[in-house]
Design brief:
74 residues; 77% helix; coiled coil
Length: 74
């Protein structure tokens, strides 16, 4: 199942690239939503999500991690 999720994530990334190139905003949003669902499922199953997919669904991912440390007592 994990390999199937990884394959689908790769397909969605390619489709998102095509939607971006054709400036199809509706298709882009739908594909991004689908990608996010697959990324979350892969994470829930313990699989490693490709960095390129994470950048698409969580462009500010590093900032979220840093924000957690900003509020930690020293």
């Amino acid at each position: 199942m994990i390999e199937a999720l990884k394959a689908r994530i790769a397909e969605l990334e390619a489709e998102i690239g095509h939607a971006t190139a054709s400036a199809d905003a509706t298709a882009y949003k739908d594909l991004l939503d689908d990608l996010e669902r697959h990324v979350e499922e892969l994470e829930a199953r313990g699989g490693k999500v490709p960095q390129s997919a994470l950048k698409l669904v969580r462009p500010d991912g590093d900032n979220e991690v840093e924000d957690q440390f900003d509020n930690m007592p020293i």
